[in-house]
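Dear colleagues,

As part of the handover before I leave the project, I'm documenting each prediction I ran so the next person doesn't have to rerun anything. This entry is a single chain, and its sequence is reproduced below.
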Amino acid sequence: MWCRILILSLNLLILANNIYGIADKTEDKPLNFSADNVQYATDQSVLSCQGNVRLDYGDIKLRAGGMQIDMENNRVKASSNVQVTDGGAEIYCQALDFDLGRSTGVMHQTQFMFTPWLMRNKMLIKAGDKKYTAPTSALTSCDATPPHYHLGTGRMNLFLEDHFTVYNNFLFFGPVPVFYLPWYHRNLKPRRTFVLSYPGYNEVEGFYLRNVIEHRFNDTNTSRVYIDYFTNKGVGLGTEYTYAAADKLKGTVLLRGIRERDTGNDRGSFEFKHWQNLS
């Protein structure tokens, strides 16, 4: 019995030493993990984690159904419903292989949202701190599956919370390429005034391009101007103002209108919402 206790104690010491070693090798950033089940292979210095696995390391947070942590080489492999949080961005993938010390790695079958675009990649490469690249990408703002349209790209460079650039782009409606764009750049930095465009198609409105000019006076007060074009309906205009004051009140005023090209009818709407805490 005493022999078993001694062997168990030695294994715990080895595990503690390796966990301390990974923190020392990764610039003193704390590494925290949890899982429903954890097994440790002392001969390989590898932790095998299964079920609701969570790993936090600096700005990187990993969530997965299964994960292997190589403490000797500071590597992490994850699979099954993998979610990567890098700063304020969330990336979903089927599997990944990360080098925590170098902040590099590879993700497979990824999905990443930055309004209004949804980006999908067969392979997304983490090339450094908040820097990602991909040989090909697919971008769309359509909610349908499969999307009615998408932008198929060549090489992509993404700097989280800064900008992304894609090259050799083809705009597809369904499976048919209709337009070539050699280069597209998007600023991801927060701005007070910016323009968003949402292309799409439906049977009633035809092909459309919805445009929003938004100005943020502060964190709680925002104005928007809507300028929409529909091949079947024509041009629609609108304006919106949203306001709030901490937990005391919040509301929205929205006015929209269009003279429909196909019917000749004038259509408009007015919406006012207000909530206030009276206590």
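The helical segments are 2-25. Confidence is low (pLDDT under 50) at residues 1-26.

All the best with the project,
I.
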